[in-house]
Hints:
Mean pLDDT: 90
Number of strands: 10
Radius of gyration: 18 Å
Order of helices and strands: EEEHEEHEHHHHEHEHEEHHH
Amino acid sequence: MSMLEVQKLSVSYGxxxxxxxxxxxxxxxxxxSLIGANGAGKSTLLKAVMGAxxxxxxxxxxxxxxxxxxxxxxxxxxxxxxxxxxRSLFNSMTVQDNLELGTYANRRxxxxxxxxxxxxxxxxxxEERKAQLAGTLSGGQQQMVAIGRALIAxxxxxLLDEPSIGLAPLVVQQIMxxxxxxxxxxxxxxxxxxxxxxxxxxxxxxxxxxEIGKVVKEGSGSELANDPQLxxxxxxxxxxxxxxxxxxxxxV
Length: 252
């Protein structure tokens, strides 16, 4: 079953076409990675799917139902949740208070304690820091709060925008392990925009390479990871590439 379908989506900033007729499909329970260079239009595409940016053309369907021009709040209610690149936490609120905000997406407030225990099992450090202000956490811990808040909402589709940016490799590995395992156990559908192409492809059931706002290559994660031309440009070569591969090798 197709959980998310995007058809010929286009988004512009003034006269600049940032996303140009992009189409992709995400099957239920799959993780799809969108990779490409900085400025390729990946994050813009994700924001348009979420409704945070207005698409000038194209169609988006969630679980077979067209979303039309539904606002962000409606898309959240229907089961879509975006974890943005900058996390959007409330820094003056505690970890637990930030997590509780996830219950408002689907009115699960009465089950909050059950959901909270589930998140603390996924990210034990958050239980230790539950009374700490979110703004005083490390970058990795803040990312865990942002993802935990999203998972409390029990989304049908989780959109992740650059979850590894600015984080240490070990923390990135811990976060990706949780996402992949949660996907396996709960059937979570994930769309991942990620600057670390090797990491994104290793986790992906399917992947799309975006250049200058267009899809130029698609296939399974392993197919793209083994594409010689893509490997040379996006996966790195020589010592740096090998180190990146080693850091990602234990994920999935």
